Amino acid sequence: MAGPQQQPPYLHLAELTASQFLEIWKHFDADVLTCLSQGAFDDSIGISKSDNFGEKMKEFMQKYDKNSDGKIEMAELAQILPTEENFLLCFRQHVGSSAEFMEAWRKYDTDRSGYIEANELKGFLSDLLKKANRPYDEPKLQEYTQTILRMFDLNGDGKLGLSEMSRLLPVQENFLLKFQGMKLTSEEFNAIFTFYDKDGSGYIDEHELDALLKDLYEKNKKEMNIQQLTSYRKSVMSLAEAGKLYRKDLEIVLCSEPPV
Question: Which residues have a Cβ under 8 Å from the Cβ of 46 and sit 6 or more positions away?
Fold first, then answer.
């Protein structure tokens, strides 16, 4: 019987998410290089100098410094992340803006349900990478597709939700995260949409969306500067059709649960 799997010598770094990993990396990779020196890495994971520190660090470097240059590259260090988060980390390096993401999503979520079908995922990812102007080959696209299916279609219903799929975006680009804690019930959403859809046309334009977003943030006592407002508006309007943001488009973004 095989013994327990040996734990790597990185002191709970596997508990980091890809987002946390990137924040630590950007903080200590001050020269915007693709590697960290051993000293900077020591600081990043909070290792204090101890009797067995040198031994632990030597073991770590032997395990992850594949090219033996005394430096840890991002690709090397990313190996310590849990498999799913490691995948997201790599994919985020190829994703463009949230607006590009939403444009690709809109093409496949044709019924504005807040979901795309699993059999459409490959096309969605292909379009997303093209919009981000990132090269890829067929095997890599297939790998992305299968990994995302394993991650997000947990109940096997063949549907992938926008809120989950938005995890592919870099944190700073994931505008959906900005609405966490501000999600509306269907009743609240209907009341707000009716207020801004003055003529009862069933849609609002980008200027009305500006006012809606400002009011929503003020209601929740959150700050939003003009740059954020412009970015969020652009991302949300990517779901619009000919400049018209229909009720179901906005419902996907602002409601607690996607519309049924």
Answer: 11
